[in-house]
Amino acid sequence: MKTAIAIRHLAFEDLGTFESVLVDRGYAVHYLDAALDELSDSGIADADLLVVLGGPIGAFDEALYPFVKDELALIQQRLDTGRPLLGICLGAQLIARALGAGVASMGVKEIGFAPLMLTPEGEASPLAQLGSVPVLHWHGDRFEIPANAVRLAGTQICTNQAFMLGTQVLALQCHLEANPEQIERWLLGHACELAQAGIDPRSLRSDAHARLSDLPQAAAAVLQCWLDLAESAATQT
């Protein structure tokens, strides 16, 4: 059985709708908590799939949260192996940093459901499976596109929303994995952030309920398409 390891920063920011896709494709899914678990085990970098999930800290916060340094080292190890690597929000920012790209505050929060604007390269990528379906955005930082990577998407607020490096690395600033059925966990867990940003949780709740059907299906199609590419390339290395 294949192994997928997900590095998690908050209990409710998990693989969401992606998890059932991975299980159906024959992956045994294991979570590691970034703040508590040992990340230097060489077996982590050698897993069939590594996913680095989102979180409420910054990609340059290792002085405040020392485990960030361990995450960066793990990501670099993973990049060196050439095996499939998926980063979401903070995870994508950490991948960008490991690849030498800048990560910084946008000066504004992007929180809510909105569609991605795909680049021509994005239209030819797994993200094309989204169509016009809105996805969940929940961040205040943004990444630059690393050298040799391909920019796939943006929004009006955040120019860089996704990139791929070859077929093995996919980085998503948005929370494509977020399950609309579990939005209440996000609203509660990030209640202070929502209040500070002046965002009414009732509007987010309503938007999530409108996405109960189309978003999980579109997200699953994106992941399936990317895994087809990444797994095929992995068997050739």
- Binned strand content: 15-25%
The total of beta strands comes to 10
Main sheet: strand order: 2-1-3-4-10-9-8-6
Radius of gyration: 16 Å
Q: Helical percent range? A: 25-40%
Q: Please work out how many helical segments DSSP would assign.
A: 9
Q: Please tell me what the overall shape is.
A: globular
The N- and C-terminal alpha carbons lie at a distance of 19 Å
Mean pLDDT: 96
Order of helices and strands: EHEHEHEHEEHEEEEHHHH
Stretches with pLDDT under 50, minimum 5 residues: none
Main β sheet profile:
8 strands, mixed
Overall structural class, as computed from helix and strand content, comes to alpha/beta
Write the layout of secondary structure elements.
Blueprint: E1 2-8, H1 18-24, E2 27-33, H2 42-45, E3 49-52, H3 67-81, E4 85-88, H4 90-98, E5 103-114, E6 117-118, H5 120-123, E7 135-143, E8 150-154, E9 162-165, E10 169-172, H6 183-189, H7 191-197, H8 201-209, H9 214-235
Helix pairs in contact: 3-4
